Amino acid sequence: EAAGAAYRFVWNLFCDWYVELLKPVFSGDDEAAMAESRATMAHVLDRIYELLHPFMPFMTEELWAQTSSWGQPRGGLLCHAEWPAPDFEDTDAAAEINWLVDLVSGIRSVRSEMNVPPAAIAPLVFVGAAAATRERAARHDPAIRRLARVGEVGFADAAPKGSAQVVLGEATACLPLGELIDLKAETARLTKELAKNADEIARIEKKLGNPQFVAKAAPEVVEAEREKQAEFEEARHRLETALARVRDAAD
């Protein structure tokens, strides 16, 4: 469990978000911003090495030695370093970045669910956005455009026709997709996928509902069927959500 939590922090937060958000800084010409970002990244990497050391001691010890010229001076071996302890928290900054992550993640999910081509760029329209949300959108406009693959970011009193919507706090983020995908064709595709999914779930339920199968089959075979059932049920939920989005956009 601890290893999984450490993995999620390093891969899903540090690599997926922090590094991605810093790329424009390092490709720009603001030397002060680059120096600050490098120092912050070096500090975070040191804490990551300390955090991961119990799980992968040899690799982290080597990385600790190879990066000794970065960031703050080190007193010796990583195994002798103090265990990292939380000593700083900026709740306002955390709330703002969490808002950005939720927005981009929501838009990516919508694009994936609705089969929007990766190269397609749609405008992003906020409806019902408070002043704080408008300010956040303006501050993070370049990151939103790059990470969510959207074009112009604007605000309106009502959702544009043919929009997929993501609720984010008091505001609704709308993606007008009517011109990017064939809504009727996508509705037909998702309906067909749901029918196939229902057939698979019914087949597995029939098998698991057979007492002879459950009693005579190897336990790992029964467990595999239950895992497949859970996967198909999860897929059904995703398909139903996607179909609802497409139908809402078509209205």
Give structural notes.
By secondary structure, the chain is an alpha+beta fold. It folds into 3 domains: about 1-80, no CATH class; about 90-175, 2-Layer Sandwich (hypothetical protein PF0899 fold); about 185-250, Helix Hairpins, CATH 1.10.287. Helices cover about 65% and strands about 10% of the residues. A 4-stranded mixed β-sheet has the order 2-1-4-3. A hairpin with a 2-residue loop joins strand 3 (about 165-170) and strand 4. The longest helix is centred in the last third of the chain and has 32 residues, at about 220-250. The model has no long low-confidence stretch (mean pLDDT about 90).
Give a quick set of tags describing it.
64% helix; 10% strand; single chain; alpha+beta; 3 domains; flat; 251 residues; Helix Hairpins; hypothetical protein PF0899 fold
Give the gist of this structure.
This protein is of the alpha+beta class. The chain has nine helices and four strands; from the N terminus they run H-H-H-H-E-H-H-E-E-E-H-H-H.
Quaternary organisation: single chain
Order of helices and strands: HHHHEHHEEEHHH
State the major sheet. 4 strands, mixed
Shape: flat
Low-confidence stretches: none
Sheet-strand content, in percent, reads 5-15%
Radius of gyration, taken over Cα atoms and rounded to an integer in Å: 24 Å
Per CATH, what is the topology of the largest domain?
Answer: hypothetical protein PF0899 fold
Known CATH architecture of the largest domain: 2-Layer Sandwich
How are the strands of the largest sheet arranged? Answer: 2-1-4-3
Number of E strands: 4
- What's the helix count? 9
Straight-line N-to-C gap:
45 Å
CATH class of the largest domain: Alpha Beta
SS-derived structural category: alpha+beta
**Percent helix among the residues?**
55-70%
Average pLDDT level? 88
What's the number of domains?
3
